[in-house]
Amino acid sequence: MKTFVTGATGFIGASIVRELLKRGREVRVLVRPASNRANLKGLDVELWEGELLDPSGLRQGLKGCDVLYHAAADYRLWTRTPEDMYRTNVGGTTAILEAAMENGISRVVYTSSVGTLGNPGNGLPGNEDTDVTLADMVGPYKKSKFLAEREAEKFIARGLPLVIVNPSTPVGPWDIKPTPTGKIIVDFLNRRMPAYLDTGLNLIDVEVCARGHILAEEKGLTGRKYILGNANLSLRNIFGMLQEITGLPAPKVRLPYAPVLAAAWLNEGLSRLTGREPLIPLAGVRMAAHHMYFDSSRAVRELGLPQTPVAEALERAVGWFRTNGYVLR
């Protein structure tokens, strides 16, 4: 069975590829000509050079494949050109799913995000059915992923055998960029995290998240969503775990929300003038106003999603960042 994977050079995608190879699958991956391929080094995969917005190239790339994992996305908390993010996340999703329809792909797993789901905002976890609208989305990343998920649903209605997975916050090795969460870990390791906001996240081991994708292919119901998550943890608790793993002191100062939000507005305004990424992304601060907790029981119950200790995933992430030169001292 030949499987096509987009986003394979990225964090989740690289782990999906590794899990597929462990199962003896033949894997073809979409790579942009200028992409960093370090996450694929040494892996027995077929490289297909192309772009998400090239329908003809996608049709050719999918020929002979049975399954598609669409994990590619432009994941940033800030961009000077939001239209580029919409083009990749919405337009790219439409293009690859249209190519899948034309090639008669027998199964599609689409990687969305818990960011597209509703969240009560009161510390209670959201689930796949919590009410949500586009107006609830904070920043271009969440908005674009929300709209991309709506496009995926249109293809389901047209008969594409597609299942949607909504990863929470993966941690672990191969976070090459790194992701915004990975950057929090790197900043902690480099002692650039003197204080914290009162917020929370749902963490999952990235390797378990990748297994969840494959379980969704094997057991998921077409048209159904599955949250791939595990532990709901406050940011303070996450730093406490990192302190136990590394021996470095966790930040003890909790910042009030309003001054940080004001600083983020100012920082973002400056970034629009300079083009430099803001030190305090406004979208990140606005998201931190709520504990982003989620209930992954549907995936546990229907897919058999493992719930391994996230402390072990954090430990592997720390080791990977240290081994690969992200820690300056």
The total of helices stands at 11
CATH fold-level name of the domain at 2-176 and 203-234 and 293-311: Rossmann fold
Q: Span between N and C termini? A: 46 Å
Evaluate the radius of gyration.
19 Å
Question: Could you name the key traits of this structure?
Answer:
Rossmann fold; 7-stranded parallel sheet; 3-stranded mixed sheet; 12 strands; 43% helix; 16% strand
3D structure, described in words:
The structure is a single chain. The chain has 329 residues and is of the alpha/beta class. It has a domain at 2-176 and 203-234 and 293-311: NAD(P)-binding Rossmann-like Domain (Rossmann fold, 3-Layer(aba) Sandwich), CATH 3.40.50.720. It has helices spanning 11-22, 55-62, 82-103, 139-157, 180-189, 206-219, 235-246, 257-274, 282-287, 297-303, 310-323, and strands at residues 2-6, 26-31, 46-49, 67-70, 107-111, 162-167, 169-171, 195-196, 200-205, 225-228, 231-234, 253-254. The strands form 3 sheets. Strands 3-2-1-4-5-6-10 form a 7-stranded parallel sheet, with helices on both faces. Strands 7-9-11 form a 3-stranded mixed sheet.
